[in-house]
Each structure stands twice: as C-alpha cells, then as structure tokens.
Amino acid sequence: MKKKTVAWFQSKLAAWANHNLRDFPWRRTTDPYSIFVAEFLLQKTVAATASPIYEEFMAQYLTLEVLAIASVEDANQILQPLGLSFRAERLCSSARIVMDKHKGKIPALEAELLLLLGVGKYTARSICANAFGQPAAVLDTNVARIIERFFGLKGERVKSRCKIL
Fold first, then answer.
1. 56 is catalytic
2. Secondary structure class of 32 (helix, strand, coil)
3. Catalytic residue among 39, 65, 89, 156
4. What is the Cα–Cα distance from 126 to 27, expressed in whole angstroms?
5. pLDDT tens, position by position, 6-28
6. Segment 63-114, tens digit of pLDDT
7. DSSP assignment of 92-152
8. 120-127 contacts at long range (C-beta below 8 A, 24 or more positions apart)
C-alpha cells in the first residue's frame, strides 16, 4: 500500500469526522477512568443508548476508588437498562483489581488491561488509544468494512483478529 494513499485516506477520514462525528461525553476526555467506564458501557451497546447511562454512572461513581468499594447490586441498578447483567460485576471486579494490583491507576499497557475481567482486545486497545494516546489499532466490524472496501482487502471472518486489517 502506498504511503501517499494511506495519508490521503487519513485526511479524508479526519475531514469527514470533523463534520459528522457525534458528540459523546467520553470523546471529550482523555481521563483513563472515564474511558475505562465508557468502554465497559459500550460493549454490545449503541453509543446513543449508553450516553445517558454513562453520565448517571459517572455522577454516582466519580472515581475508581468509589467504584472499587461499590456493591455490584448498586452499580447494576444504574447499568440495568443497558442489559448484560454481568457488566456491573465485571466493571466492579476490574476496578478492585486496578486498585489492588495497579495502585489505583488504570493500566496503560494492553497486556495488563487484558488481564482484567471483561476487557478484550478491542476494549484494551481503545483505552490505550483514547486515554493514553497510543497508536493502537482499534478495529471493529464497521472500521474493518471501510478499510476492506477502500483498500480492496479481504479480511478474515473474525475482523478483530485479522492481521492484514
């Protein structure tokens, strides 16, 4: 692939985003805890649905420390409209692990994030990219589709594991 083509694609995508990217609260921050919470809420959930729940959750659980001592039942009361009953349990458990093993700091390394309950490759990379400014490939089905079509590539069935994409 030519560097010139990639640079052109990046500039066109950035221009499109300036006019079309929807505004969500997690896009206005680089705070690792805020991004961490957002990524849990966005799992298998439409962003517009997650947004008001995110605002309510962040108002209730202002810091990782507060979340780490919260009961799963209380957290689930807020998260229940999003579905996935295990979400609150995984989020609270991961917050406790971060407090215990990482001195209350969200890990900046993909490998460390992957050890947290409920954190997969996409979530880990999104946290690395959005909270820590790392050049991590955050690949979902929609991103894969755009890349495949524009560059004429054919990825594997499981797009998130496809090396070429």
1. no
2. helix
3. 39
4. 12
5. 899 889 889 998 999 999 999 99
6. 999 999 999 999 999 999 998 889 999 999 999 999 999 999 999 999 999 9
7. HHHHHHHHHHSTT----SHHHHTTSTT--HHHHHHHHHHHH--------HHHHHHHHHHHT
8. 121/160, 121/161, 122/160, 123/39, 123/40, 123/43, 126/35, 126/39, 127/32, 127/35, 127/36, 127/39
